[in-house]
Amino acid sequence: MPELPEVAAIADYVDGRTAGLPIRRVDVASLAVLKTADPPYSALAGRIVESVSRIGKYLVMRTLPGPDDDAAAEPLVVLVIHLSRAGWLRWSDQLSQTPPRPGGKGPIALRVHCGLPGEGFDVTEAGTQKRLAVWIVRDVGEVERIATLGPDVLAMGRDEFGAILAGSSGRIKNVLTDQRTLAGVGNAYSDEILHTAKLSPFASAKTLDDAQVDILYDTIRSVLTDAITRLEGQEVARLKSEKRTGLRVHARTGLPCPVCGDTIREVAFTDRSFQYCPTCQTGGKVLADRRMSRLLK
Asked: Which ranges carry the FPG-type domain (predicted)?
């Protein structure tokens, strides 16, 4: 799943190639990904890209009226993309001019012709669980999922972060990945953060002492900013592999912990899993690998 560092890198890459340039055409291969109908997706054609940025894990492309638009044109139309678990953006300098077949079995959901002539990107989704979502709105606040996001993890202060943890009744793993509580962190980077902070995924968020909260706050910032720095300037096609090379525990089940040498363990659920080091994080105890996981006694 693309998380804050990858979405930030994608936004920076696309912004550098489209800002100030027009959207020539938008092709929709899967109407199911469109969560809004007004303005229609065709309204993006001819508009100028003002900027591409991120909000949490959402990709946000703001557009302004083009030179051929009349005075009644919308002053702002925003394309919002949530790549979800299996979505991705593929940039091309030689984007196919043939529209993808609607309802086809391929991974392409949306194609946006933008930037210089011949350039643009496909929004794709692998697998059978279709969770990719696209909104075309006049203001990002119209997207309910964005309106209900918690504060961005890199924009909050230590006191605000501590208050959020103190008011939470959940386990720290769940708090870090709940976008309504904190925006930006997903499954992979929460594993990395908790490993670096030496905290159990099942630790109660509200019981962390001040020293642990300090460490966790600093760790979130260091892990995410290090990832952003590592991905900065990379081609979009390389971001997935670059992300994997920077992970120390996530998706490394059975391999030695790079800190202590213990074996990285996994807790698996129905459709996802997370990884941790028993020595570094749980006092040597192994977490039960079942849906209702508890510490083995």
From this structure: 248-282
